[in-house]
Design goal:
Shape: globular
Oligomer: single chain
Order of helices and strands: HEHEEEEEEEEEE
Number of helices: 2
Largest sheet: 9 strands, antiparallel
Radius of gyration: 21 Å
Distance between the termini: 47 Å
Length: 139
């Protein structure tokens, strides 16, 4: 029995440590349409990597582009250069009848709105003529 105990510790201890070191993240899978602004901010706040944007005809991929959301502010970082800005949230109704909150994360003249959070993915829809849908991954 004395020889078996060290063997059990060597076999079981790493498994237990691996379990305790796993990141405990809540898996979110929700639309952000028709939500209160406080709910949207809670789900969007944090650092995200912008990976792609596109519509039915075009697809753009991005590298080294990050957006950090902090309630009413954001910081756009591209190739190490950070540019802060105000989101200027405002509520409106879109063509489908859903109520959304517009934000000025891309351009003030063509705002975007958060559509959904699925796991570590955030989808933003812009209101420009291109109607790009942007995909961001939580960092």
């Amino acid at each position: 029995m004395k020889k078996l105990l060290p063997l059990l510790l060597v076999a079981v201890l790493p498994f237990g440590m691996a379990q305790s070191n796993q990141k405990k993240t809540e898996c979110v899978n929700t639309t952000l349409l028709n939500r209160e602004l406080s709910e949207i901010k809670a789900l969007v706040n944090g650092e995200w990597e912008l990976v792609s944007g596109g519509n039915a005809r075009e697809l753009c991929e991005y590298e080294n582009t990050f957006i950090t959301f902090a309630d009413d502010q954001y910081v756009w970082t591209e190739d190490g250069k950070a540019e802060p800005g105000a989101l200027n949230w405002r509520k409106t109704e879109i063509e489908t009848g859903h109520k959304v909150y517009l934000m000025d994360v891309f351009y003030a003249t063509h705002p975007a709105y958060p559509v959904s959070v699925k796991g570590d993915t955030l989808i933003l829809q812009d209101c420009s003529e291109t109607r790009y849908e942007y995909t961001l991954i939580r960092k």
